[in-house]
Design brief:
187 residues; alpha+beta; Chalcone isomerase; 6 strands; globular
């Protein structure tokens, strides 16, 4: 029963986070698609991510993340990649939307999203990103006062360099999963 209740809570959090993300992202549409990581990913390469299918969700401290994927990566996950030992195909994209969260003042006190923190981008493109095992990365932080995005930098937590390799070192730990930590969650 405890597991079922945790799954229901997680489902509610994911649903709210996705809905919350669509609302926030709509406010940021005026300029986010003009941003680009120097020598790397452009936010515009992920246009429409707000409506992509949810791959999974995660929590780290007081942040919640909803991971969404484009149709190519969803299809790859459903075919058994990376568990079957095959790599993700070029064109696979994921977006990890981080939310600042707090414990809701409701029975059960679930951790709920209150504001967007940042957006992490990841694309498989073996020709463009051979130094990243075929993956390119980008981090875009929210500027709360302006309700806009900016390219992540070395002052952020975790610090981000200004190139498409900002996630390479971290993702080395997932080498046996084609450098992808996220697991597709069955419905």
């Amino acid at each position: 029963m405890k597991n079922k209740s945790m799954l229901i809570s997680a489902g509610i959090v994911v649903s709210l986070a996705v809905a919350f993300g669509v609302a926030i992202s709509a406010a940021n549409d005026q300029d986010k698609y003009t941003l680009k990581v120097p020598g790397g990913l452009a936010f515009s390469e992920f246009r429409g991510y707000e409506t992509w299918e949810v791959v999974s969700a995660s929590q780290h401290g007081e942040t919640i993340a909803v991971i969404v994927g484009n149709p190519e990566i969803i299809s790859a996950f459903k075919s058994g990649i990376p568990g079957n030992g095959k790599p993700f195909p070029d064109g696979s994209k994921m977006v990890k939307i981080h939310y600042n969260a707090k414990v809701a003042q409701v029975p059960g006190g679930s951790l709920m999203p209150v504001s967007q923190h940042d957006v992490d981008l990841m694309v498989k493109d073996s020709k463009r990103f051979p130094d990243g095992h075929g993956w390119g990365y980008g981090v875009f932080e929210i500027v709360p006062a302006a309700n806009t995005f900016r390219v992540g930098d070395t002052n952020d937590k975790p610090p981000q360099e200004h190139d498409a390799k900002c996630g390479v070192e971290c993702h080395e730990a997932a080498e046996n999963r084609d450098y992808v930590f996220t697991q597709y969650m069955q419905r």
